[in-house]
Design brief:
Strand 1, helix 3 and strand 2 form a beta-alpha-beta unit. Helix 3 runs parallel beside helix 4 and helix 4 packs parallel to helix 5. The two termini are about 15 Å apart. Helix content is about 40%, strand content about 10%. By secondary structure, it is of the alpha/beta class. The longest helix has 17 residues. Bound molecules: iron/sulfur cluster and FE2/S2 (inorganic) cluster. The site of FE2/S2 (inorganic) cluster has 10 residues, from helix 15.
């Protein structure tokens, strides 16, 4: 899935929970992370061309065992973390998911599951609800099976997802429908929103592809045009007004066309941390794309110590690291200089201003690149495990 969705969802859920004051307080001083994203596995039956997992996926043999994950959950709760998001790959591919959910719930964490839904059964969904799961983000690729399954590389997936939505509602769980949008499904945003309403979701997230990992690899396949993007934004605004009180619509714009960057992860090492299947602790899901960072593992060092003193966490925290343009900018504590991974991918230096910022000297180049990609023809490259053509669950 597109992990920038996490940031917005976390903030929305926290606001729903009435803890926005706490969140504001936490932005002012170094506090524990608000939420952790636990990538339990990189295994997944889907092969989405914009998957935010790294190009080099963690093999099943390297995944942390149940006891190690239980220790992570206990440590997170002790630190004062409020939420845990179980993600992947496909987290329901882990047989111990119910055990992990139960521990997180009993430790007082708000438990969210980010899933493709294709492995869920009525029995499993009910068991997860019983274990203490509070909320499910169910990913769809489209409102139509054909184009959706072209993106996911998984035949029959759409019908399974529709069934999964029913299971989730029947189990009494809160449902958010997540849909990543790009130039091939942008035209169906109205149908996508209606699908979410029909499925009984309380929220739908329409998130443009974030260009990291496989999304970056397939940027020329996915980039929408400028006019198409403006139209999409109008459609969402109209639907928000029309469906007020029926469904909440979150919308993540394609930031190559924005004037300012997003506040990626709410600022590097300020609110969130990410656990890889093998136990590496990252400031964001794409941080391994930045050379020179050292990522500690929870197998070797306590989580709280990594959060506080890990080299990768300290490197771009707060404002001291910023280039001059950001240091003197009034938005420096709004967007925190944007996204380090995007700066790395597009300028070759993670310490540069995010080049989607209109003040960046790379911005003209990025705009031209987006315009060029929006009309490029290219066959998608599907997510695969390194060295194999298919992953197994
Ligand atoms: Fe954000 Fe830096 Fe651009 Fe200011 S100059 S808007 S802080 S990226
Ligand atoms: Fe934005 Fe890494 S994805 S900082």
């Amino acid at each position: 899935m597109a992990r920038n969705e996490i940031r917005d969802d976390v903030i929305d859920v926290l606001q729903d929970q009435g803890v926005s004051d706490l969140m504001t307080a936490q932005t002012k001083t170094r506090e524990p992370p608000l939420a952790i994203l636990a990538e339990l596995t990189h295994r997944c039956p889907l092969r989405c061309v914009y998957c935010s997992n790294p190009l080099a996926l963690d093999p099943a043999s390297g995944e942390m065992d149940t006891e190690s994950w239980l220790s992570v959950i206990d440590q997170a709760a002790d630190m004062g973390v409020l939420q845990i998001h179980f993600s992947g790959g496909e987290p329901t591919a882990r047989k111990d998911l119910d055990t992990l959910v139960a521990r997180a719930d009993s430790a007082g964490l708000y438990v969210n599951l980010i899933t493709s839904g294709v492995l869920l059964t009525d029995q499993r969904t009910a068991a997860l609800a019983e274990a203490g799961l509070a909320h499910v983000q169910l990913g769809f690729q489209d409102s139509e099976a054909g184009p959706g399954e072209w993106i996911s590389g998984y035949a029959g997936g759409h019908a399974k997802k529709l069934e999964a939505a029913r299971m989730i509602r029947d189990a009494g769980l809160a449902l958010t429908v997540n849909v990543v949008v790009h130039r091939h499904n942008a035209v169906r945003v109205p149908q996508i929103i209606q699908m979410a309403v029909d499925l009984g979701a309380h929220r739908v997230e329409i998130a443009n592809v974030q260009y990291y990992g496989w999304g970056l690899r397939n940027r020329a396949v996915l980039m929408p045009g400028r006019a198409q993007t403006e139209k999409m934004t109008e459609v969402v605004e109209e639907a928000r007004k029309r469906l007020k009180g029926v469904i909440v619509i979150d919308y993540v714009t394609p930031d190559y066309y924005a004037r300012y960057p997003k506040s990626c992860m709410g600022g590097w090492a300020r609110r969130f941390l990410n656990l890889t299947p093998a136990g590496k602790v990252l400031p964001c899901h794409a941080a391994e794309s930045i050379p020179g960072l050292k990522f500690d593992s929870v197998r070797d060092r306590p989580l709280a110590e990594i959060w506080e003193n890990g080299q990768a966490f300290r490197k771009y925290r707060a404002t001291e690291w910023m280039p001059e343009g950001c240091r003197s900018c009034e938005r420096r504590e709004i967007d925190w200089g944007g996204c380090r991974c995007q700066a790395m991918a597009l300028t070759g230096d993670a310490a540069n201003m995010d080049p989607v910022c209109m003040y960046s000297s790379f911005n003209d180049e990025v705009q031209a690149m987006a315009d060029q990609d929006a009309v490029a023809g290219q066959e998608p490259v599907y997510r695969t495990f390194q060295g194999t053509s298919e992953e197994t669950v």
